Amino acid sequence: MALHVCNGQTAMVLQSASLFRSSQVSSERNAVGRANRFLHFQDMLVFKAAGVRRYDFGGWYAGSADIERLHINRFKEGFGGHVIGYFTCELGVTLLGKSVLKLDQLRRSLFTSSLQRKRGAHYVPAQSRIVEED
Known about the structure:
Blueprint: E1 2-6, E2 10-16, H1 26-49, E3 54-56, H2 67-77, E4 82-90, H3 95-109, E5 122-132
Parallel strand pairs: 2-3
Antiparallel strand pairs: 1-2, 3-5, 4-5
């Protein structure tokens, strides 16, 4: 199961869930994994038929220590495509928006080093794996 957002040219996975971890039986986990792969493929076909050129899996683990995330990377690699880098930005425009960002900045400052903080807008480096139509 996946939740997507689409801007006309790119469909991005916002949330994706699979219950393969809940089974203790290897054959059941494999069947659920294959069904999950099939559903992502069907999503890609639906978006392609609607004229969407890119399917963005959203997120890519750039590290090497978390085995579970490396397995997720391998799942995404199975569809082809390539990894892109980008930044997301949160910028408060209204008084309420600016207040929420300030509170979030205060919350983050309690958990991050001063080198990671920025003033004004909050920029988050990210990577994502996308599959593009040729």
